[in-house]
Amino acid sequence: MKSEILKIKERIQNGELTVQDLFQNTMKSVLENQEKCNSFVTILDPLETSSGNLQNIPYALKDNISTKGILTTGSSNTLKNYIPVYDATVYQKLKEVGAVCIGKTVMDEFGLGATGTTGHTGVVKNPWDESLQAGGSSAGSAACVAAGVVPFAIGTDTGDSIRKPAAYCGIVGYKPTYGMISRYGVYPFASSLDHVGVLTRSVYDAALVVDVIKGKDEKDMTSFDSSSIKLVDALNNQKKEPKKLFYFKELVHIDSYENPSEELKQTLKQFEELKEKASELGILICEESLSRELLEAIPSVYTCISCAEATSNLSNLTGIIFGPQEESSDVFEMIKEHRTKGFSPLIKRRLVIGSYVLQKENQEKYFLNAQRVRNLIVQKMNAFFEQYDALILPCSEREAKSLNPKESVTTSDTMVLENHMAIGNFGGFPSITIPNGFVNGLPIGVNLTAKVKDDENLLQIAARLEEMLGLCGQVAGGKK
Fold first, then answer.
1. Is there a contact between 168 and 126 (Cβ–Cβ < 8 Å)?
2. 137, 202, 344, 431: which is the annotated catalytic residue?
3. How far apart are CA 418 and CA 428, in angstroms?
């Protein structure tokens, strides 16, 4: 198994690399990446640690994860000066194993975006091509890993916010089963959909990191005891047993699209080639069907539920408890001014949608119906998982989109293909994206999703496909 983390540890142990040189090289890369891609909100001085599984391994942390005494903005003007007084569990666990945080990464504001363009400190650019999106919301985390700055970064995923940027940046993005990693200290977006996860350049490193940050947390009632799930052991002891995957023909057949672009044709062609190669490894990939009505409902269901939950979760951002306070004798005017000036247009639109679907007269038609459809989709997926090891699909219709909004519009024809990874959040299913080649010289990804708590099996399949594809460890520009 290829592992950048183990390689760094081995070089230090063998005397080929000193910790001081590692940190010096990392900080040089940080500053270069910041100038090129704008990955970081805050850059931190690395401090040598004394022990642990990840001793002295540098990493980056998404800026919606609480860090005591360190600026944590959520990439929003409403918290641009906020310094937490406590640590998130995931950050605390990484400190305990000796990992060294070298910076807090730019994100779409509070995670409510998919482009990496709405953070208050500016746009995150794709390290493969600075005219392109890095994807969102974990944009900075993806960009700095893809550029080779750090071997891993922590992100969050509510609809595909780890896995889509991973695909756009040519790296691995892994969202474990809901509740495997504590969300205590993580700014909530949509609590029933939010996951903490990791971005790396190999499946093995994703397993290694998640093994040390997962676990039951008394401070997070949605977390569970995952001590019986041992991801690295599962990869180290993997037997090449036959695996059976499935895909939805409605999303993969080219004749499902009225006017397919050349990029879409290339993406689907590469998916077909992957299917053929996988069969040689004993991985059978079968065709299944999900009703067009359910597939087309995915984006709307996600919008209704996530916006409603965001409206509730962000209601404490009033400018009174914390954040820049507006001057006014009227408390309601003070709150209005704070939110009007502090939130980006995207956040405002989503909160308006959330407020609308939660109004008493609209709840049945929108919010409750969205929950019913979500449940139907999850039931269908659980039925498929009784027959198959995992769902496999392209991550998106094409490579990373342009930063020019006029050139990056998703058509209704490909809306489901662009948003299907929300299924993993609907059911809390473990889901991982790995690189699957290139379109127009830029990386694309393939996504795998498995049943709840079947993370070991999921990563075993991903590792076998990763080895077959030969793209493990790549950094922007095609280097390894």
1. yes
2. 137
3. 19
How many Cα atoms sit within 13 Å of 280 on the Cβ side? Answer: 8
Active site (annotated) includes residue 62: yes
Residue owning tokens 């990955």 = 39
Phi, psi (5° rounding) for residue 160? 180, 25
Ramachandran sector of residue 52 (left: φ over 0; alpha: ψ -120 to 50; beta: rest): left
d(CA 117, CA 326): 26
29 is catalytic: no
What is residue 347's three-state secondary structure? helix
- pLDDT per residue of the chain (480 residues) written in tens, 0 to 9: 689 999 999 999 999 999 999 999 999 999 999 999 999 999 999 999 999 999 999 999 999 999 999 999 999 999 999 999 999 999 999 999 999 999 999 999 999 999 999 999 999 999 999 999 999 999 999 999 999 999 999 999 999 999 999 999 999 999 999 999 999 999 999 999 999 999 999 999 999 999 999 999 999 999 999 999 999 999 999 988 999 999 999 999 999 999 999 999 999 999 999 999 999 889 999 999 999 999 999 999 999 999 999 999 999 999 888 777 777 778 888 888 889 989 999 999 999 999 999 999 999 999 999 999 999 999 999 999 999 999 999 999 999 999 998 777 777 889 999 999 999 999 999 999 999 999 999 999 999 999 999 999 999 999 999 999 999 999 997 544
Active site residue 161: yes
Residue 474 CA from chain centroid, whole number: 18
**3, 39, 62, 125: the active-site residue:** 62
Lookup: tokens for 3: 């592992």
Distance, CA of 167 to CA of 442 (rounded, Å): 10
Residue of 3, 66, 161, 431 marked catalytic: 161
**Backbone phi, then psi, for 133, in 5-degree steps?**
-70, 150
DSSP 25-46: HHHHHHHHHHHHH--EEEE---
